[in-house]
Amino acid sequence: MRKTCFIILIMLLLMPIAKAQNPSKGGVSPLFAPKFKAELPSEVNETSGLFFHNGRLWTHNDSGGKPMLYGIDTVNFEIVQRITIANASNKDWEDVCTDGEMVFVGDMGNNKGNRKDLTIYTFPLSAIPAEGDATINADAILFSFGDQTDFNKRKVHDFDCEAMFATKDGLYLLSKGWETGTTRLYRLPKTPGKHVAEVVNGFDSQGLVTGADYDLSTNTLVVIGYVKSFWKPFVYLIFNFDEDGTQLPHRRFEMPSLLGCQTEGICFFGNGKCYVSAETSKAFSARFVEMDFRKWMEKTRKSL
Hints:
Layout: H1 2-19, E1 35-39, E2 47-53, E3 56-61, E4 68-73, E5 79-85, E6 93-98, E7 102-107, E8 119-124, E9 134-136, E10 139-145, E11 160-166, E12 171-176, E13 183-188, E14 193-203, E15 208-215, E16 220-227, E17 232-238, E18 251-254, E19 262-268, E20 273-279, E21 287-292, H2 294-303
């Protein structure tokens, strides 16, 4: 009986890998084992977004947390700075990103599908001091999804959003497909005001997308999420990012060693290296792990 259960578990773990074996998607890597770096301080055990700046990891808590960004050093992994956004509230902060000039904080969690106050707070990256805490004011990008017409409360829908990234030309959102297991790519202007997020692309993510980051120097997008029910994390590396591209997911990484880990935020911090933050789950404490995709990035670029 135990042997049978073990075989079934292995089959379930490998099913998404077999399904993803599609040449048009750039193939699938071998199973990938991230490197554990540190547990998160208890003050940010509900980490939800992540970006890298001034040698520090910047994160925030999700719904109900303080309207605050926390700067964490990468030696002792302790909080060394706190940036409060004075004119903001944290209804459901889900991701944070930067384009190198501005910071964008997404208050866009929409678990019940009925929010009409979706907001992205934005302020200059230069407002974050090199050292010490600070309180700043931010402008607001108010938005709605252009393809949403039903605002009734419901548990299963595709209008939740937990992943955001910025390029030189625009701000992008990736939906969390509770209903379909796919993700849609939306585009927004980076200017404050009221806007409509329009669908420009999407792909079969085979799971729930929870975070993203874009590397301007290599035009590479990284997307993280997990498979619903199994809580099995995955990562996509998308090379030569083009919002109109027909082959968005170039390589998918499976991470069964993190089975049960609720991965939330991801950011580049070097040429092909990423940090990932995970909030507290039943199986794991809140933590940082490190992923090194350099050899895969080089290998895939040569095959494109």
